[in-house]
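Researcher: Next entry in the queue.
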Amino acid sequence: MNQIDALLNPRSIAVIGASADPKKTSGLPVSYLIKHGFGGPIYPVNPKADEIQGLTCYPSVEALPEAPDVGLVLLNARRSIDAVRGLAQLGCKAAVVLASGYAEAGEEGQDLQAQLKEAAGSMRILGPNTIGLVNLTAGIPLSASGALEVSELPAGSVAVVSQSGGILGALLSRAAGRGIGLSSLISTSNEVDLEVSDFVEYLIDDPSTKVIALYLESIRHPARFREVAMRAREAGKPLVVFKIGRSEAGASAASSHTGALAGEDHVYDAFFRELGVIRVNTFDEFLDVPAVLVAGRQLAGRRVAVLTSTGGAGTLIADSLGINGFETPPPDQATAEKLRALQGDTPTALDRNPIDVTLAGLQPDLLRQAIRILLESDSYDALIVIIGSSGLAMPDLVVGAISDSLDSSDKPVLAYVSPYAPNTLQRLNRAAIPGFSSPESCSAVLEALHITSQPLKAGASQPSVQLPDVSGLPQGAIDEAAAKQLFAEAGIAVPPSRVVHTREEAERAASEVGAPVVLKVLDANLLHKSDIGGVALHLNADTIGDRLEQMTHQVKSHVGRRPDAYLVEAMVSGGHELILGANRDALGTAILLGAGGVTAELFKDTAIRLLPAQGGLTLEQAREMMQQLTTWPLLDGYRGAPRRDTEALAQAIVNFSALMAALGERLVTSEINPLFVLPEGEGVVAADAVLVLDEGGGEGGSHG
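Model: Structure for this entry, 704 residues:
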């Protein structure tokens, strides 16, 4: 932490490779340090110059008069390695390496990046391939970003950590234009050493920062991120994440439906939700949401008052709120009477919301009183004030009217500026009034406030589950019969079944199991059996023989070989079909519950949870997953239909997750599809099973 503090608050800075031409990219950092008032020693290093912008220039790192706190390295990839080595030997605390051409450039670049790390020794590195950092609180720009040409960069309480260098400049200029103050901006880029979680940990204790915004391409160390995210939540510092890659992300569907449904991006959603991290969906929201959270106001419920003097804009806001699950109830009688008294003899409809108080837009005193009345009302948890074209004639008076009312309540107050008026938005934000130019942003920030207002859930104890020994399972796909045996030993019911190889065996098995039965091809390498004619329903001892021979030919025509074995299984009827699956990726093991059967990928009605570091899910988490499904009412007795055995389902989810946890890093993917949920009191039955294992590094064994 001391080295990171020296990086963000250096007392002295060496600029390695500084140009004497302030118009060149390598000349900009010295120029910006001077322009923005850095008060400590600045040491330009360039063997071809004696002086740069009035500062003594040194021919090499070794010639510096002292070890600087930070070295800003502007050389190319290979030369930067030598500069970093020299800074480390001198005793420098941290280096910022701007050069590209490292790991992002392929195998040769990866080798150079390893050399860079080795050259640094115990010195910390930001980058490489970074645009640097800017500490606005202290006025310290360690960057060549052209956004620093702006003379006035408002300091505030939002810190930004970005894995993209170019985004830093875009956010810096946008925030300045909107009047949103930032405490610092840090570009981590290749993260050869310092990474996002290191800076989150530092910013948790930074008194200048109230909200931490993260622009992420990936999370390289999920366990470390989980740790610092929980610390940030406990410290009351919200994390707001803009995670890019939604359109590109997704796991392969080759081995299971779960692989397609629990794609990488959905797992990130679950990961962030579990940690109380707010994920925003647009670049505008990446600034809008932190700007609101800085105020620290709590949203007690989802009832919103919309105060407007322009009907059309009010409808836009109300529609956006409704789509996102917020309520806009009309004023209660006492509130309506107070508002009516403001209007005097002017006819006013106060039986609806948005609340159109026409004169308020022209008379700041009326606006001020109307705001206070709505904030005092027990009918509302938040207020959105719409500023129409009439308010632009006197923006300072309108902003003042809203600002004067803030101390009367701790409820969130937002302003929506209906016309194009960037100056008004800037005035609002500088007055600590979150101002927005889109209705969607108002809904997004209220949702973020709702998330941060929820208390941290206490961890429930994990139930004891008796599990089979999984240490001897082979690598690769496990056939359905063996997978079902494993699930049965974990306490998940499966139908009676027999493994057969011939027509005669199939007919005998159908008689023993009892009609009706299902016939399936049994082959660990054929996971999507129904797609190749490998599943037949409603059979009995008289019909199964002919159907087996027909299936043999169908499967052979698809895969080029004759099946060796089949599964004869009792049919399950009267159950609601779900899919219960698990998929392992870089963030951990995701447990998925969703609408099942052959339409699972079509409807994509799913709930996802990540397994904790140890053990499976709790019964409470299992119930939350069930109730998150759009189709939950079908399980809970929708329109008088019989309720399903949801308690048995919850226990099956718990048992399945515990088994997946026992498999650890060996798990690739697994699923039960369909999992039939029978009427209340009759349990659940796993009618199909997929399990694919890798060599992995997890440990298996019996768990209790």
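Model: The first helix runs from residue 2 to 8.
Researcher: Noted, moving on.
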